[in-house]
Amino acid sequence: MPDSTQLHIVTGKGGTGKTTIAASLAMALADKGKKVLLCEVEGRQGIAQLFDVPPLPYEERKVAVGLGGGQVFALAIDPEAALLEYLQMYYKLGRAGRALDRFGIIDFATTIAPGVRDVLLTGKVYEAARRRTGKAFTYDALILDAPPTGRITRFLNVNSEVAGLAKVGPIRRQSDSIMKMMRAPETHVHLVTVLEEMPVQETLDGIAGLKSERLPVGTVVVNQVRDSPLPEGGLDRLRAHKVVLADVERSLKKAGLSDIDAEDFVLEGEAHAQRQSLQDAQRSVLVTADQPVAEVPYLTDGVDLGALFELAEILKTEVLDG
Ligand SMILES: Nc1ncnc2c1ncn2[C@@H]1O[C@H](COP(=O)(O)OP(=O)(O)O)[C@@H](O)[C@H]1O
Ligand SMILES: [Mg+2]
After folding, report:
1. Nearest CA owner, ligand 1 atom 23
2. Pairing mode, strands 136-137 and 132-133
3. Sign of CA dihedral 295, 187, 308, 149
4. Which ligand has the shortest distance to the CA of 12?
5. Residue 168 falls within a domain, yes or no?
6. pLDDT at res. 83
7. Ligand 1 centroid to 16 CA: how many Å?
8. Residue 69 domain flag
9. Residue 34, SS3 per DSSP
10. Pocket of ligand 1 contains residue 225 by CB under 6 Å
11. How many CB atoms lie within 10 A of CB 68?
12. Looking at the 3D structure of the chain, how many domains does it have?
């Protein structure tokens, strides 16, 4: 029986593949036979889309079964529902809680005060991570499709602000417990990026921010990596514009591709070689963060359920066992 639920928090610049990597990581854990809860907090229903299921209610739903017999449950955490649940749990409000909702008080608390929102979202994560079925934890692992890199430290750290406000009492105990979970050895904050200048810089800044608050940085997942089918020598010749047009024409003809314009073909090859150089440059920038790095290929056919299995296989060795 595990001592505690593992918590994998996945952040990254928007559009780099946060949701894709979080879902793949959940599948990787299910492959290892784990019971996993995959949570999203941004109200985008990205998980439902990815697993091709109807929009997720504020209720845990099984969305997939891993090859190793584990299961993936999913939950879209909604701050308003979390607040009502919280009031019900702590104050047994029931109908009175619903009245608050009618008067717009729930709206007020969750949208006007952004810090409150984050307290509620992280509070729900904490509840799910510590929930027990009998003696054992209900879930072996929680995966959080978290806010983007620019907001992640503030989000994970919000309970330390609460702890600063409440010196004693149940709120202080709750916020201390949540901060303890965030900084526990079972918690890992993974950062998804692509090999481009802006996201890589954001990743480095994100890592520095997390470290300054003693939040546990996990693996940098480099997503959408485009490998080259060409050997290094070929790439070098393309970059140096040393590819002979007549040679290319002859090769294309031999391959039965004489309808391809050789000059265009070379230009495309040079652009490809250039992109590979840019990727390499960003790779060496990322190394300066001194964190484990896992690379995930760009999938030309897009990301469907089958792709999640494929990515899970990579993440299993590169992130979970690495
Ligand atoms: N490895 C990959 N190969 C190909 N397409 C990818 C890959 N990872 C993500 N994508 C695509 O990129 C887009 C953004 O991914 P998503 O996971 O939704 O990013 P985020 O959650 O960071 O906004 C989606 O269309 C997704 O299918
Ligand atoms: Mg997303």
Report:
1. 15
2. antiparallel
3. negative
4. 1
5. yes
6. 82
7. 6
8. yes
9. coil
10. no
11. 13
12. 1
Give the torsion through C-alpha atoms of 133, 137, 139, 144, to 10 deg.
130
Please indicate whether residue 123, judged by its CB atom, sits closer than 6 Å to ligand 1.
Answer: no
The pLDDT score that the predictor gives to residue 86 is 78
Task: Provide the 3-class DSSP secondary structure of residue 274.
Answer: helix
Distance CA 11, CA 316 (A): 18
Would you call 39 helix, strand, or coil by DSSP?
strand
pLDDT-flagged residues of the chain (< 70):
1-3, 90, 92-94, 97, 100, 103-114, 322
Distance CA 123, CA 112 (A): 18
d(CA 298, CA 211): 29
Report pLDDT for 177: 94
In this predicted structure, what is the pLDDT of residue 115? Answer: 83
Task: For ligand 1, atom 10, name the residue with the nearest CA.
Answer: 17
For the record, the structure tokens of 309 come out as 């299995």
Residue 302 is part of which domain span? 6-227+290-320
The domain that holds 13 is classified in CATH as 3.40.50.300
Domain contains 27: yes
Amino acid at 251: S
How far does the centroid of ligand 1 lie from the alpha carbon of residue 304, in Å? 10
**Residues belonging to the chain:** 322
Q: Can you read off the two tokens belonging to residue 261?
A: 């314009």
| Inside any domain, residue 255 | no
Question: Which ligand gives the minimal distance to the CA of 202?
Answer: 1
Q: Is the dihedral of CA 255, 257, 262, 266 positive or negative?
A: negative
Residue 318 makes CB contacts below 8 A (sequence gap 6+) with: 219, 294, 295, 296
